[in-house]
Amino acid sequence: MSKRIGLGIIGLGAMGTELLEAAASHDDFKVVLCADVNEAAVARERRKYSGIDFTTEPEAVVAAENLDAVYIATPPRFHAAYAMAAMRAGKAVFCEKPLAVDLAEGEAMADLARTTGVANAVNFALADRHATLEIERALGAGELGSVGSVEIRLAFPQWPRAFQTDASWLSGRAEGGFVREVFSHFAYLTDRLIGELEPVFVSLDFPQGKDASEISAFGLFRAGGVPVRVFGQAGLAVPESYEWTIAGSRRAYRLRNWGELEVSVGESWQNVALSGARGSEYTRLSAFARAIRGEPQTNLADFAAGLRVQRAVEAFHAKAG
Prior knowledge:
The protein is α/β, with parallel strands linked by helices and 321 residues long. The chain has two domains: 5-124 and 281-299, NAD(P)-binding Rossmann-like Domain (Rossmann fold, 3-Layer(aba) Sandwich), CATH 3.40.50; 126-278 and 308-320, Dihydrodipicolinate Reductase, domain 2 (2-Layer Sandwich), CATH 3.30.360. It is 34% helix and 26% strand. It has nine helices and 14 strands. It has helices at 14-24, 39-48, 58-63, 79-88, 103-116, 130-140, 178-193, 281-292, 303-320; strands at 5-10, 29-35, 53-55, 69-72, 92-95, 120-122, 147-156, 197-205, 216-223, 226-234, 241-248, 252-256, 260-264, 270-271. The strands form two sheets. An eight-stranded mixed beta sheet has the order 8-9-10-7-11-12-13-14, with helices on one face. It has a six-stranded parallel beta sheet with strand order 3-2-1-4-5-6, with helices on both faces. Strand 4 (69-72), helix 4 (79-88) and strand 5 form a beta-alpha-beta unit. Helix 4 packs parallel to helix 5 (103-116), helix 5 (103-116) runs antiparallel to helix 9 (303-320) and helix 7 (178-193) crosses helix 9. The longest helix is centred in the C-terminal third of the chain and has 18 residues, at 303-320. It is globular. The mean pLDDT is 96.
């Protein structure tokens, strides 16, 4: 496939509009049709992009014959229906995380992706971050020594975060919460670099008398035999923070705030100077285009990886009942 890839987008919230902006300027893609059930969102984006068609009917994107691929940025409960319909129609699918909320749906999505053979990917922000690639290089070179632990720490004074206030589903227990929305990125990173996460103990705390998302999360997993500790909190007067730390016998790395990398050899943390592209929706679209064309690509999570992450995420909710 040498021509530009015809792309449809379902969902025009924070992530959908961010990827639309990246795709509209991308040489590999031609954005043809975008959909959102929110008429105001459709009107807002239509004013920005005169050469793209818009609709309030997401099913029209899946059914469109002039599309090669679909990007899905809806609330998670809709991912399976749109993704599976698109794959059955022979379209490649790029889906926001989490893959799904219901494990049976996630398994069905991964199975269909495998049997149809269409290109499929989940949009994990850390898949091609330069910090991720540097840690991956150091691990491959043996610079960390024997890996002894991984720790994930997340803190949110406000949940949902300010840029997500229009996404009301994020504040609900049914499909929202920071474990699904944010921990999933770091679960993917752990799965990719260390191994699949196997729960040992997990716990969520919820506000009393409310059907709201979690206010704290604590978990112990093992990945490739390495203990992985998870601690997250929301709604407390602490600075917003994101930390993923991997400690080895020779060296430790700490990834902070989605792309800042620090290293320690048993003393104070030192900043690591990173080279190359930071990684973004644009670069992940480039990887997705290579996957669609059957070209080699590595820094992209497929549905199989998304399902492994979903199992780790939903282990928290299964325990909570």
